């Protein structure tokens, strides 16, 4: 009897480009600058990306260009949350202290502030042109292309 196997990795073969952005602006301000310089129409989605039972959440902006069959996503890579610190119960002072913890959507790129994900079906987006326009925005420190196939946590980019 023949044995048939189904490889799950073959299903997710989505063609997209990924651009890393180093920028200390708030997400809404960066989305405005991208809309203005790249001619996009990014809008914040109603729900943020939540991981590990609301342990961390990341803002996401999206524009679905139906005329060119391209979906643009701007997603934050950094989530900062204030949590209670752990302390010993046998201490003299029982004051609770807050600790600021930082989580990353893509842990391999901890220094990156935002990612632009460009999902295009017919491969009509010129990545070099997009990078050149991003470099012309003075508030962006740097931007560069990232190969999504080399990411260990590329499953976090499925949305």
TrEMBL record:
Output this protein's name.
Answer: IPExxxVDY family protein
